[in-house]
Amino acid sequence: TEKEDAERRQEEFKKITTLFAEKLDLEDMIAQLLAVEGYTSIEKIANASVTDIEKIEGFDGELAAEIYDRASQHMANEKAELEKLAKTYETDIQTMAAELQSKVKQYDTEAAAQTDEENAKRLQEVQGMEQSIRQYQAQAQQELQKKEFDLLKPITEKAQAAINKVAGALGFDYVLDSTQGQGVIVANGTDLMEEVKKELGF
Predict the structure, then answer these.
(1) C-alpha angle with apex 193: 181 to 170, nearest 5 degrees?
(2) pLDDT, tens digit, 9 for 90 and up, residues 75-101
(3) Residues near 64 by beta carbon (within 8 Å), at least 6 away in sequence
(4) Among residues 42, 36, 104, 29, which one has the least CA distance to residue 68?
(5) pTM for the complete prediction?
(6) CB 73 within 8 Å of CB 83
(7) Where are the alpha helices (DSSP H) in the chain?
(8) In 3D, which of 137, 148, 152 has the Cα closest to residue 81?
(9) What is the tens place of the pLDDT at every residue in 112-129?
């Protein structure tokens, strides 16, 4: 219903302003003005320009630069945390694999002196360790992919917006990705890459 939609938008607005206030140490009013202007994430602020932020009513160059710097630093910290987390997972998996290899080597050496029942028990233990490693690897990969997606999302959104703008200006209804494995290669089609780069400021 209309009422539910309004409540949902209000709740989303509240979440965004709280995020800005807490993560960027901004006053509530400044956080609210950013949200009103369409900045729905810290990533979007960091991928904007000081000039864009300064256009917000009531903002001056000094305030815009400070907000941009805080957002950029936050994103740098997020990237560093992602790299740290990836290294932690890598170390953990290497440790688990080394323990598994040591256990397998030990059990292989001792197998002839053990009963069939004991060897079966040890085999089950090794298989359990292997399964634990696979599960941990899957969990690590899933978490890292999610964090990386969250980190890169504003960049892909900005690129998509630039592509849409250039395509619209040139009167194109469709744009195909000619990257290998990503879509149909149009050998004689117009390449928008240079125009998109200009739009992105490259």
Answers:
(1) 115
(2) 899 889 888 989 999 999 999 999 999
(3) 50, 51, 53, 54, 56
(4) 42
(5) 0.57
(6) no
(7) 2-23, 28-36, 42-46, 50-54, 61-110, 116-170, 193-200
(8) 148
(9) 999 999 999 999 999 999
